[in-house]
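Chain entry —
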Amino acid sequence: MAVLNERQEKIFQELTDRYPALEAVRGDILEAYRILEECYERGGRLLIAGNGGSCADAEHIVGELMKGFVKRRELKKELQARLIAEDGENGARLAECLQEGLPAIALNGHPGLSTAFANDVDADMVYAQQICGYGEEGDVFLGISTSGNAKNIDYAVTVAKAKGMKVIGLTGKDGGSLAKRAHVAVVAPEQETFKIQELHLPIYHGLCLLLEEKFFGEEQS
């Protein structure tokens, strides 16, 4: 299980205080965080996929990881200097405005590839094809499915595990096949889809906050 620093402990305690239902999956959330922390420490990336509302959640997560969430993630001084050396005034503006990111890709955001593969091969394998192309050993696949039984997520899990990636499931109800196949699954303790989705948001916000504190906290500045 992940070892949190004092500020991370405060973040996590606030999460369970605000959403008491998540106390039941506390250990799973911390294990998901540990997997993500190790991935980023080794220079890996996070690939995320879901359908419908879970598709929107995938994009949401990328938005929190690839730029500042609650912290200002200033670029390293070396990169700032190189930007300025490359292009004077424009480089200085970029050095001021750009922020450090934690690499994350939402697999639903590639309509040209997705529609071509769906038309030419099999729509259920679109995410699996992208895992095949993007994924590397040490990366993480986060599959989001409120039932845990989405076929396209199941195919993607197969490819991710075959490539040596870790798999995190974010699901609900009884967890479905995703909970059985993932290295760790956070199963929101609800049965109805919209209620599961209402708990998914604070879960992934909590994970993003913990990661930001780890990699861009005060001790990193």
Remarks:
- Residues 71-100 form one domain.
- The two ends are 26 Å apart (CA to CA).
